[in-house]
Amino acid sequence: MQLEQLLNILDYAQSPNYYSTSAEQDISTQHIYSAAKKAGVKGVYVIHTSPSSNEILPPQPVVYVAEAQTVEAAKIIHRKLWNLGAAPFLLVLLPNQIRVYTGFNYSSENENKGLIDSIEPNILDIRSKLKYIFAESIDSGSIWKTQAKHISKERINTHLLNSIEKLTEYLAKQGLNLSAAYALIGKYLYIRYLRDRDILSENWCSENNIDLRSVLSSHASVSGLEKLTEALQKRFNSDIFPFPLQGRDAITDEIVSLLGSIFNGSKVLDSQLNLDFTAYDFSYIPADILSSIYEQLINVQGHKKAVYTHVPLAEYLLCEINQSKPFFTGIKILDPCCSCGTFLVLAYRRLIEIQLAHSSDKKLSLGRLLDILIESIYGVGQNRDACYVAEFSLIVTMLNYIEPTELHSNKEFKFPILHNHQIIESDVFSTNHQFDWIVGNYDLIKIKQSSVIECLKPNGYVGLIIHAESFLNYDLAECRKQLFQENEVARITNFSKLTHVFELEAPVATIVYTKATADREKPSIIHFAPSIINQIHNQAWMITINEDETQLVPPDDAETGEAIVWKLALWGNYRDKRTIKRLNRLFTTNLATLAEQKNWRLHPEPILINTSNLYFLIPELLWSISYPDEDTNYLRAIATFFHSSIGQYNLFFHSTEWFVDENSLFIKDITKIPVPALSTEQISEIAKLQPDPDLLLTYIENQARLDKEIERIFNINQNISIIARDFINFSLKLNKGQTVTLTQSPTEENLLDYGKCLVKELDEFVEGSGIRHKISIVHSTGLIVCTVEILRSTHPIDITITAVINDNISYSLIEEIKQKSKDKCNQWMYTQYSIYIFDGAKIHICKASRLINWTQTQALNDSDDIIAQVLAARNKSNEVLLEGVG
Question: Is the pLDDT of residue 840 over 90?
Answer without folding.
Answer: no
